[in-house]
Amino acid sequence: MMDLGLQGKVALITGGSQGIGFASAIALAKEGAQVAIVARSEDRLRAAAAEIVEHVGVAPIIIAADVSSPDDCTRAVEETFAHYGRIDILVNNAGTSAAGSFETVTADAWAQDLDLKLFGAIHCSRAAVAYMRKAGTGSIVNVTAVGGKTPSAGSLPTSVSRAAGLALTKAMSKDLAPAGIRVNAVCIGLIRSEQIERMWQKTAPEQTWEQFALDGRFNIPLGRIGDAREAANVIAFLSSSAASYVTGTAVNIDGGTSAVL
């Protein structure tokens, strides 16, 4: 078994109460990291924390915050540092799917999407980097989507926010490498989530999840919808010393769907 070198490290995960963020919290905690999870709903955070205890036996700290607020981003990082005395890993995972055609997306929708996905990552990273720079090491993983590499019709504003997140990742990796801080991204394809489950219930309620996940209409080369744990495993690797020579890259987690590298 590979030792990821995460024992005693501290990870802050935004959007950590469900989906990929929640799965990442479990994956990192299983490797020995101490975890802080951030989300807007305190009730969801408490439920997620209880599940993490069941899986791992160790409770994360929970921080109710809206990462579209710069002040909340700073507070989340400061509370994590105050509790654990360090911050080694930041997973910028908070985000929702907001997709429409160019002419239907309002100015408010553009602002909300960019504030949450792009500026949320910027503000959380700025706050965390201050502590990582002092420590001389750190890892940031930005969770984006394959649509950021290959935007499709009707994918606005999400695809633009995600593409900006990829540019942010590359530029940050160049700026922060001399400080020993690595910055990478993961590009998510079809992964089981509340949104995908709603699509399942709406379009194929007669199928079991297993049948729906294997449906050929999705044209996934590996033949199935992915699981959040599979994304979390890649995030844990990129966060760890096992990936110590990896920075500025964007890894597709999409079952081979994307047409780009």
Description:
The radius of gyration is 18 Å and the shape is globular. The strands form two sheets. The chain has a seven-stranded parallel beta sheet, with helices on both faces. Strands 5-7 form a two-stranded antiparallel sheet. The protein contains eight helices and nine strands. The chain has helices at 19-30, 42-56, 70-84, 107-135, 158-176, 194-203, 209-213, 228-239, and strands spanning 10-14, 34-39, 61-64, 89-92, 99-100, 138-145, 156-157, 181-188, 250-253. It is of the alpha/beta class. The chain starts with 9 loop residues before the first strand and ends in an 8-residue tail after the last strand. It is 45% helix and 16% strand.
How much strand?
Answer: 15-25%
Radius of gyration: 18 Å
Number of discrete helical segments: 8
Distance between the ends = 29 Å
Largest sheet: 7 strands, parallel
Poorly predicted regions are none
Decide which structural class fits the backbone: alpha/beta
Topology as H/E string?
Answer: EHEHEHEEHEEHEHHHE
Overall morphology? globular
Strand segment tally: 9
* Strand ordering within the main sheet: 3-2-1-4-6-8-9
Helix content: 40-55%
Average of the residue pLDDT scores:
96
